[in-house]
Design goal:
single chain; mainly alpha; two-stranded antiparallel sheet; about 50% helix
């Protein structure tokens, strides 16, 4: 299992805003995180619409976290970008994979899927930031 490029970028942006408090322009985020500018601005718009970041307009404007880092989970970020992770997702990518029509890995993947969902539901930006500093 891997996260989409959009999910990876969103986590990087949110982690940066956690680590470096204050207001940061899209240009600064683009430069510091080396993300494609147009992609980044679309992503920031999604995060703002989901109330995860606040946008301040004007010369001194930019983006900052809309609430504290310990109140934003990875699950919140995935939902904001339209990629909710559900325990029902198939590891092999099949749309019709459930108990009545299981894929070859359905039963083996059931427990890890639930554990991953739990991690995403309970891991906050503060948790990520603390773990990053320990590395």
């Amino acid at each position: 299992m891997h996260f989409s490029k959009t999910a990876q970028y969103a986590i990087r942006v949110m982690s940066y805003l956690t680590r470096y408090e204050g207001v940061h322009s899209a240009a600064t985020l683009h430069r510091e995180l080396e993300l494609p500018y147009k992609y980044l601005t679309k992503l920031l718009t999604q995060l703002e619409k989901s109330s995860l970041v606040t946008a301040a307009r004007g010369r001194e404007g930019g983006f900052s976290l809309a609430r504290s880092a310990d109140a934003i989970t990875l699950h919140d970020i995935f939902n904001a970008i339209g990629e909710p992770l559900h325990a029902s997702q198939c590891i092999l990518g099949f749309e019709a994979c459930d108990a009545s029509n299981p894929c070859a890995l359905h039963h083996q993947w059931l427990e890890p899927r639930v554990l991953i969902d739990e991690i995403l539901l309970h891991t906050t930006l503060s948790d990520l930031n603390e773990r990053q500093h320990k590395l």
